[in-house]
Amino acid sequence: MKPRPFDYARPETIDEAVALLAEYGDEARILAGGQSLMAMMNLRLADPAVLIDIARVEEMSHIRDLGDKIEVGAAVTQNRLLAWPELKTKLPLLAVALPWVGHFQTRNKGTVCGSIAHADPSSEIPLSLATLEGEVVLRSKRGERVLKASDFQVDMLTTAREGDELIVAVRFPVKPGCRAAFREVARRHGDFAIVAVAATIDNNGTTRLGVGGMAGTPVVRAIADGNIKDTVEQMIAELEGYEDLHASAELRRDLLRNLAPVVVAEAQTCAA
């Protein structure tokens, strides 16, 4: 199957892109890397009247150190962030999570913000953003607003972005000395995870556990007093897991029960 006919626009600035969104609203879709969007259009799960291609908007091609945060523009590809020399020092969770995203070839086109916009609950980058308590920067003709990750992704493939808003960047908090680990289970390497687990430990010894694939959005918990088992069992009781063609809820619960202690232990042994 192929997509229905659509118009194509390639703005050169953020203002041009925002003006197009104001004109077309929900009839438009943003094209950056297209790794998820084009597949959805081929299946006619997405049927936009116009594609707005932002891949060459120079204003959004930055990786910017803001001191306490790293801002990644909407045109930055996943492999470009992965190759950023300061990634391991500034954002260790992204350094270990990004290699799990798709394949080298897809990471060359897929963008960091595109993954956030797609909002798949099993996706590695939204899970990392939620675990780090990051934020999403949105722009429209009405102005700019910044949403916490937990407020931005509201359900499976559903976000709080309005039809006339453009994701211009995401911001990942920098936590000096933070240690991190990431693992997932998928049918094949590069597939979306059945269950994904992220863990960070900051300088104060606070451990945060993030889980993808168990609910409509990533779920994050702080581990009290290092009691991993009780925290995981509480998460399992709350989430229950959901079933699809790839795995039963019972399998997802068992995967989380086994993965979480391993990932936290790996984070504990990482060099800060």
Characterization of this structure:
- This protein has eleven helices and 14 strands.
- It is of the alpha+beta class.
- The chain folds into three domains: 7-53, Uridine Diphospho-n-acetylenolpyruvylglucosamine Reductase, domain 2, CATH 3.30.43; 58-173, Uridine Diphospho-n-acetylenolpyruvylglucosamine Reductase, domain 3, CATH 3.30.465.10; 179-269, Enolase-like, domain 1, CATH 3.30.390.
- The strands form four sheets. The chain has a five-stranded antiparallel β-sheet with strand order 4-5-10-6-7. The protein has a four-stranded antiparallel β-sheet with strand order 11-12-13-14, sandwiched between helices. A three-stranded parallel β-sheet has the order 1-3-2, with helices on one face.
- The protein starts with 6 loop residues before the first strand and ends with a helix.
Domain count, please report it: 3
The share of residues in extended strands comes to: 25-35%
The fold-level CATH name of the largest domain is Uridine Diphospho-n-acetylenolpyruvylglucosamine Reductase, domain 3
- What level of helicity do the residues show? 25-40%
Order of helices and strands: EHEHEEEHHHHHHEEHEEEEEEEHH
Number of helices: 11
| Mean pLDDT, all residues | 93
Span between termini: 49 Å
- Within the largest sheet, what's the order of strands? 4-5-10-6-7
Q: Structural class of the helices, strands and pairings? A: alpha+beta
Cα-atom radius of gyration: 18 Å
- CATH-derived architecture of the largest domain: 2-Layer Sandwich
Give a count of the beta strands, DSSP E runs of length 2 or more: 14
Indicate the CATH class of the largest domain.
Answer: Alpha Beta
Report the principal-axis shape. Answer: globular
Taking pLDDT < 50 over at least 5 consecutive residues as the criterion, the unreliable ranges are none
For the largest beta-sheet, the strand count, sense and barrel status come to: 5 strands, antiparallel
